[in-house]
Structures are given as C-alpha cells and as structure tokens.
Amino acid sequence: MKEIRFRCWIDINDEKFFGPGPMQLLLLVEQEGSIAKAAKTMGMSYKKAWDLINTLNSKGSQPYVISQKGGQKGGGAELTAHAKTVIQSYQHLLDKLESLVKDEDKILNLL
User: What does the DSSP 8-state code read for residue 13?
Assistant: First the structure.
C-alpha cells in the first residue's frame, strides 16, 4: 500500500519542542489529572514525562502544566489555558496539513 506520511514538529533554536508526543502527553495530563498517570498510560517513565513537561514550561513563552505536590489527597497536574490554546492551534495545523496531503496524494499513482 502506498501512502504519504508525515510528522510535524515545531522547533525552537533548532531543537524539537512540540509535536505528537508532547501533545499526547498534555492531553493525557488533562484527562488523568496527573503526570504520573499520563506517563504510565503512554508507557513512558515518570522522569521522561516530567523532563518533557519541564522543557515545555521553561522553554515555552508561558507555562503549559501546573502541578501540585502530593499531600493527604495526593498531588495533581492541570493544563494552563496557554497549553490548551497551543494544542488547539497545533491540531488545526495538523488538520490543514492532512488536507493538503490528501489533495496531493495523486503522486502515489505515479510511483
């Protein structure tokens, strides 16, 4: 089967910053209310998830995730309004790119 596939990443200073993995992690943090649970769902170590979120929070223009340390009821994490806006904008970009690729898939017939 022939198909055109792509991955869209946003780089900051020539380093991958935001793409499919970070977006999935953020969506799971929103769903689970926890970085640890989101990481487990993705099959990712907590340290890797924490490092990724720390990178988003420190290198982004605004924080993406606000976390609370554990206590009697345990900790938690939630997305900022900024993170939700970035996710929506990134998904919109992916939708546009997907549409463009579908429009151009006639090249597959030439291969």
Answer: T
Give whole-number Cα distances, 108 to 10, 79, 98, in Å: 27, 40, 15
Q: Are the beta carbons of 102 and 94 closer than 8 angstroms?
A: no
Confidence check: pLDDT of 54 > 80: yes
Half-sphere exposure of 51 (CA within 13 A, CB side): 5
Of the two residues 1 and 99, the one the predictor is more confident about is: 99
Exposed, middle or buried, 104 (CB in 10 Å: 0-12/13-18/19+)? exposed
Using DSSP's 3-state secondary structure scheme, residue 69 falls into: coil
CA-CA-CA-CA torsion sign (27, 33, 38, 41)? negative
Q: What is the 3-state secondary structure (H, E, C) of 22-55?
A: HHHHHHHHHHHCCHHHHHHHHCCCHHHHHHHHHH
Which helix (DSSP H) or strand (DSSP E) does residue 88 occupy? Answer: helix 81-103
